[in-house]
Design a protein that fits this description.
single chain; 118 residues; mainly beta; Jelly Rolls; 5-stranded mixed β-sheet; two-stranded antiparallel ribbon; globular
Length: 118
Amino acid sequence: MSFVDAPGKLRIEVEVARQNAHRQRGLMFRTELAQNSGMLFSWDDERVRSFWMLNTCLPLDMLFIAADGVIVGIVEQVPTLNTASRSVPCPAAHVLEVNAGWSRAHGVLPGQRVRIEG
């Protein structure tokens, strides 16, 4: 996955969650996530997506991405092990979870474009 509008030639490796069972488990119970990696949740349609951190031991940033690759919102520094719903008010076809602070550290902002490769 590459970040077309972010500073530098930013790329990360992502694990893709396309099936319901994989999306439901997500990053639960994991204790580490490599610095330039993440989990990409993908659907065939766009809608407002909500996530929680049940059994998720890693603090995360959540990037909500429209079908055309535009980041429509970012929820930063989501705390671990809670069931509070996290979302943005814009429809998304993808949600990328990365380590907390990653978005800000790399200059990734809403309105920028990403390219999902592979």
